[in-house]
Amino acid sequence: MTAPQPDGQPPTGSQPPADGQSAVGGAALAAEGALLQVEHVAKRFGAVTALSDINLHVNRGEVLGLLGDNGAGKSTLLKILCGFQPPDSGRILLDGQEVHLKSVDHARSLGIDVVYQDLALIDELTVYHNMFLKREKVIWPLLNNRAMRRIARERLDAIGIGLKSVDVPVARLSGGQRQAIAVARAVYSDAKVLLLDEPLAAMGAKEAALILDLIRDLKRRGDLSIIIVAHNYGQAIEICDRINLLQHGEITFNKLSKDTSVQELNDIVIEEYRRALQERQKSA
Amino acid sequence: MSETAERAPEEVAALPPTPGLGGGFWGAVKRFGAVLAQQREATVFVVAVLLVIYFWRAAPAFLTKDNIVNISQITAPVAIIAIGEVFLLVCGEIDLSVGFIFAFSPFLMHYLIDYYGVPATLAIIISLLFGVVAGFINGFITVVLQVPSFITTLGTGFILFGLMLTTSNAYPANIPAKAEGIGHWVGTYAWAEITWAIVLALIFQVVLSRTRWGLHTVAVGGNLLGASEAGINVARIKYAAFIMTGFMGALVGLQEAFRTNTIDPSSGGYQPMFYAIAAAVIGGTALAGGSGTVIGAFLGSFVLAALTDGFNLIGISANPEPIIFGAAILIAMIANVQLARLRRAGRMT
Question: What is the CATH number of the domain that holds A37?
Answer without folding.
Answer: 3.40.50.300
